[in-house]
Amino acid sequence: MMLIDSGDIDLSVGEGSRSERLFHAIRSKIVANLWKKNNQLPSTRKLALELGVSRNTVIHAYEQLVAEGYIESRRGSGYYVAVKLPEHYFPAQSVAPSGTSDYVLKNASANITNQAFSPGVADFSTFPYRQWQAIINCHLSRPTLMGFHDEQGWLELREALSQYLASNRSVCCDASRIIITSGAQQALSIALLATQDKGDQIAMECPGYARMKGVIDVLGYQYQPVNVAPFTGLDIESIQSMSAKLLYITPSNQYPMGTSLNTEQRLELINWAVTNNRYIIEDDYDSEFQFAHRPYTSMQGLAGKMGQDSQIIYVGSFSKVMFNGLRLGYMVVPNQLVSSCVALKAALSGDSPTHLQAALADFIRDGSLVRHIRRMRRLYEQKYQLMVQNIKELWGNDVEICSQAAGLHITLRWWQGIDEHHWAQLAENEGIIIRPMSYYDSLSSKQRGWKGAVLGFGNVAEADIESLLTSLRRLFLQGIAL
Ligand SMILES: Cc1ncc(COP(=O)(O)O)c(C=O)c1O
């Protein structure tokens, strides 16, 4: 139940008595589904005061609305919207403006959900809710947090984060070089706007992170794909001859192919950026979850050790290590970009939610984040093993797992059998979300020579993995039979 506010009701226009005008104004709110079933209307006294009319005027309007079934009076409680409108009353879905790129449209319509196998979703069942709630509660009653604050981000959070990043990812920074953003997503936009002119070419991995492709399209840059092959990864050689002045990569767990760059490859790219005065965005979105080996030092940290981090923009997110809905991410930028990036952050969204930032700073400082990550690393590794075991048992040689043992997803490829889109569609009909490879590369499987799909296991309970994969196998075979 929500309380309805009188909002923009205006009785100065229209025909009839004030009471009739009020009746029509409220009825049109209900018919337009702006005031929804079971929501509580303002009391007659309050509404009369707000609209500057007599209480009788409001009472008459309410009585008429009750008589016609739009609202109901509940004894001792007040008036509530009573009508559940049939579908045809709702406005049709808006249509995207012409000129919107295919890629953006495809991703806008992609089913963003937290259902089974939807990639990129963290486990929600094991989050330390009570502890997080207690920390948040401590900050909720602090009046100082309620005003405007530094657009760069809450200083205590930036300080805690700089220590976390230094000790866990060898990132070379202090708080003055960190900008807190609305997820990694915003950091990616800021990084492009701060370093590139409209129309410039941006090199990025292909297949690659679809939302980064969306940023490139929407901000009016040119997309220059760099091939990522299964197992062997990024085509570094081709980068040497590219004219793009910025390269976006996910070097520790390439999304979605699940390859990683070794130290030699990282050094080669750092050298390319430094000698040619190019920028690299290092998206380090899930490197805390490496299961087979120790994670590689971040490229930013590697470059920093050599005093060469002036060309690296390091981007991170709390979506995987905490939860997606937190919408907090960050960027570590070279000194020369700090002021322009902060100005862009200020212009795009102002400051970030301060209570959440203050709570997160505590969560990092008291060791809770690291404890949570350790626990989740064990859990995700178990889920990963279960996924691999079941995929091998169910599919045998029909599919190949091409992603490394890391992160929250598994990438499959196959040559014979169901079309990747068809499989995703059949799965979606049963409430299972898998992403066809073309979501990440815009290529049909014919052009690519193989078919692929990405399965996220982060938010799938261990106990459900076998049965969900069994359903997927059934659909896989069903698709071949057609
Ligand atoms: C490659 C990549 N980068 C970054 C992110 C995190 O983005 P955000 O912080 O906006 O949730 C994701 C999430 O799925 C991702 O896959």
How would you explain this protein's 3D organization?
This protein has 482 residues and is an alpha/beta fold. It has helices at residues 18-31, 44-51, 55-67, 102-109, 129-140, 155-169, 183-195, 210-218, 236-240, 263-276, 299-305, 338-349, 354-365, 368-395, 420-429, 438-441, 445-448, 462-481; strands at residues 71-74, 78-81, 178-181, 201-206, 222-229, 233-234, 246-249, 279-283, 312-317, 329-332, 400-401, 409-414, 435-436, 451-456. The chain has an eight-stranded mixed beta sheet, sandwiched between helices. The chain has a four-stranded antiparallel beta sheet with strand order 11-12-14-13. Strands 1-2 form a two-stranded antiparallel ribbon. A hairpin with a 3-residue loop joins strand 5 and strand 6 (233-234). Helix 1 packs across helix 3. The two termini are 48 Å apart. The mean pLDDT is 93. Pyridoxal-5'-phosphate binds at residues 120, 183-185, 209, 250, 255, 283, 285, 317, 319, 324, 329.
What's a quick, concise take on this entry?
In the C-terminal section; belongs to the class-I pyridoxal-phosphate-dependent aminotransferase family. The protein has 482 residues and is of the alpha/beta class.
